[in-house]
Amino acid sequence: MRTDQHNPGTQPNRSFLTWAIALTLMTWAIVLTVGLGWSVLPAHAEDGLVPYDQIKTELAPIQQLFTRINQEFEGIILEIELEEEDASWIYEVKLLTPRGNVLEVEYDAKSLDLLNVNGQRDSLNPY
């Protein structure tokens, strides 16, 4: 019996993983493009939307969030959401780590303080 034969059930299909990551990145690019386009639309009080000027002055810019994430974690950003929780704005970030783990990280949207990290961390991530 040969012991060097590859057993397809024991290792992930790398081409599928590469394809899945590429698809995720393309989706993220579309979400950012559409999201940035929507952010310039006027908000009206009767719509229940927060006015642009209020968000602009109260929240840290997303570029600063990207910098902060890259300083604290190694991985690929899969998704970013802005949520209002208990009268506070929170950036919720999903990251794919180099070992394939998904982390859900929360930052205060005003100060960019790290609030919470959920998921299995790689040993490379100090937080």
Provide an overview of this structure.
This protein has 127 residues and is of the alpha+beta class. The protein has one domain (14-118): Roll (Nuclear Transport Factor 2, Chain: A), CATH 3.10.450. It is built from three helices and four strands. It has helices at residues 14-39, 52-58, 62-72, and strands at residues 76-85, 88-96, 102-108, 114-118. The protein has a four-stranded antiparallel sheet. Strand 2 (88-96) and strand 3 (102-108) form a beta hairpin.
Give the helices and strands, then pairings.
Layout lengths: L13 H26 L12 H7 L3 H11 L3 E10 L2 E9 L5 E7 L5 E5 L9
Antiparallel strand pairs: 1-2, 2-3, 3-4
Main sheet specs: 4 strands, antiparallel
Number of domains: 1
**Shape from CA axes?**
globular
Helix/strand structural class? alpha+beta
The percent range for helix content is: 25-40%
Number of helices: 3
Strand content: 15-25%
Level-2 CATH architecture:
Roll
Mean pLDDT: 74
- Please tally the β strands and state the result: 4
In the CATH scheme, the class would be Alpha Beta
